[in-house]
Amino acid sequence: MTLPGSFFDRPALAVAPDLLGRVIVHGSEEGLVAVRLTEVEAYEGADDPGSHAFRGRTRRNEVMFGAPGHVYVYFTYGMHWCTNLVCGPGQRAAAVLLRAGEVVEGAELAAVRRPTARSARELARGPARLTAALGLTGAHNGADACRPGGRLQVLDGVPCEASAVRSGPRTGVGGGGASRPWRFWADGEPTVSVYRPHAPRNRARPDQPDARGLGA
DNA sequence: AAAACGATACACT
DNA sequence: GTGTATCGTTTTT
């Protein structure tokens, strides 16, 4: 069954763990791909320094300020699209980022869209990879994912056992609101990357010369 | 300049 | 087969 808008009309922190084991489906002229969600991340609104909505409404993030259950698809790092499901309650500008999943239908089409994937589990392992496997781009930004019979839907699937849900800090969130355990994943899923306590995203560490000895 | 990242090359098992 | 370091490219601040 299609999850209704009311499912998403709650804080992202409540929706995120409840999304594990659910299935997002996108049907297009090319065919249909379905992904069972295994890793997600919650972003609350204006209170959350890690959220795109933290500094207010912009053209990029305006979908976050709209109706729950629609998708916020944004462009990042100059080349990737990532997908979120807008949450609530109301128009609070909260959302859940879809970080990883397992392709459960349409793997052949997903492989065409993800030519660099070297194994089935890499098809939708990572937020931009998952988005590519589903065939979503900025053209889908704002689409309603709660309409039964629609091209884009989130199905109830088989929700993950509460005992298998793990959580930890989000990646790359610095400053005041850092290290809120708002990243959720299903334990033991091969599509979930190994837990990184603090992703070393800093290329040039000022306190260390050069690990490879190629400096200056 | 940093960011809600992925592809690649290369190391290790 | 799996893990890890490095770097590309655009939007937003």
CATH architectural type: Roll
Number of domains: 1
Give me the number of helical elements: 4
Q: CATH homologous superfamily?
A: Methylpurine-DNA glycosylase (MPG)
Shape summary: globular
- Our estimate of the beta-strand percent is 25-35%
CATH class: Alpha Beta
- Residue stretches low in confidence (pLDDT < 50, at least 5 long) are 196-216
Question: Main traits of this protein?
Answer:
216 residues; alpha+beta; eight-stranded antiparallel beta sheet; 4 helices; 26% strand; globular; DNA-binding
Provide an overview of this structure.
This protein has 216 residues and is an alpha+beta fold. The chain has a single domain, classed as Methylpurine-DNA glycosylase (MPG) (3-methyladenine DNA Glycosylase, Chain A, Roll). The protein has helices spanning 5-8, 12-19, 107-113, 127-134, and strands at 23-28, 31-43, 71-76, 80-87, 94-105, 152-155, 165-168, 183-186. Strands 1, 2, 3, 4, 5, 6, 7 and 8 form an eight-stranded antiparallel sheet that branches. Strand 1 and strand 2 form a beta hairpin. It binds a DNA duplex (13 and 13 nucleotides) through strand 3, strand 4 and helix 4.
